[in-house]
């Protein structure tokens, strides 16, 4: 660590105001306090554009890029806060050069979860059952697996979306397993939708702790929170997404993992990526491994393989698809 923490030193964390965002930021704050006794960590709530517009489909709001991150990044650049805590799946792969990922803590379960109180599993849902999600990736995967379902666009925080299923308004909803677990709501999960049939969003289940690139003191404070196997896995995923110019609003799914961390191969990193057309009729898959020392090259390798198989055409269809009507809260 560069320099000792003096008693009463203050570090401010920029966070969204949702229950999940505050949980994640409090989790980071607790670990900073434990790693650096005497450090005072404060949370600064920042409303993002995605928080202010709760009705429009995500892809319809300014193209859906950086909806939950830009205002917090601006606070970092303006030195209103020293740290920003993001759900890594929300963080665009191209950000301000002055900012860096100071730490990527160990990843939670990366997969999706189905909440279907009556029918329980995805395969048990009857034809015509209504399933809610606000994610283009989840919509495409659901339509690919079950084209007979009615996929409904929904918005809102975790609790609001969960209630659409628990009250019976919809037959099911799909949410990130990690978010439900962090909020103590995983008892509502009736079916886990995970690899290899269902791949997560890039960075899903992981936190991205951002700070200013020139802030050596804060980078040092964050060092104990970094989990290198998770960082390697998500860097491979993000490199592939960036190479395909996908952004976070296309039906692309990725699952990276450090095989050495899993006890399979000490020097290898694995990456599986799927790309869909918006309606889920077509799916392209690619799986590769590479040296764990170079996650970005693995991501580029997978991107090139997908591109040669026609991924650009599917992603172009996704970008050209009209956004869904903003009828769901």
TrEMBL record:
EC number: 2.5.1.61
Every Porphobilinogen deaminase C-terminal domain range: 233-307
Cofactor: dipyrromethane
Keyword Transferase: yes
Keywords: Porphyrin biosynthesis, Transferase
Keyword Transport part of the UniProt annotation: no
One GO CC term, this protein: cytoplasm
GO molecular function term, any single one: hydroxymethylbilane synthase activity
Assembly notes: Monomer.
Alphabetical list of HAMAP family matching this protein: Porphobil_deam
Protein name per the record: Porphobilinogen deaminase
Organism of origin: Tautonia sociabilis
């Amino acid at each position: 660590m560069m320099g000792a923490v003096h008693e009463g030193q203050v570090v401010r964390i920029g966070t969204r105001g949702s229950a999940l965002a505050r949980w994640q930021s409090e989790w980071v704050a607790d670990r900073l306090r434990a790693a650096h006794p005497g450090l005072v960590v404060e949370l600064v709530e920042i409303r993002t554009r995605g928080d202010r517009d709760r009705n429009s489909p995500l892809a319809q709001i300014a193209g859906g890029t950086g909806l939950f991150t830009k205002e917090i990044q601006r606070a970092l650049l303006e030195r209103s806060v020293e740290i920003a805590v993001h759900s890594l799946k929300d963080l665009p792969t191209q950000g301000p050069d002055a900012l860096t990922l100071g730490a990527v803590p160990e990843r939670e379960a990366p997969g999706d979860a189905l909440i279907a109180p009556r029918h329980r599993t995805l395969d048990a849902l009857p034809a015509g059952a209504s399933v809610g999600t606000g994610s283009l990736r989840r919509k495409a995967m659901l339509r690919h697996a079950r084209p007979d379902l009615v996929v409904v666009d929904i918005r809102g925080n975790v609790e609001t979306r969960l209630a659409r299923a628990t009250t019976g308004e919809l037959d099911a909803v799909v949410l990130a397993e990690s978010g439900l677990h962090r909020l103590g709501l995983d008892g509502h999960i009736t079916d886990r939708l995970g690899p290899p049939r269902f791949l997560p969003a890039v960075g899903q289940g992981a936190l991205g702790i951002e700070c200013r690139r020139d802030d050596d003191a804060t980078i040092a404070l964050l060092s104990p929170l970094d989990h290198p196997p998770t960082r390697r896995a998500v860097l491979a995923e993000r490199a592939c997404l960036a190479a395909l110019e996908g952004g976070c609003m296309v039906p692309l799914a990725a699952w990276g993992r450090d095989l050495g961390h899993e006890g399979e191969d000490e020097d290898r990193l694995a990456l599986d990526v799927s790309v869909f057309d918006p309606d889920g009729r077509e799916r392209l898959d690619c799986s590769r491994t590479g040296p764990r020392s170079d996650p970005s090259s693995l991501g580029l390798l997978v991107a090139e393989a997908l591109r040669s198989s026609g991924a650009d055409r599917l992603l172009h269809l996704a970008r050209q698809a009209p956004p869904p009507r903003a009828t769901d809260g």
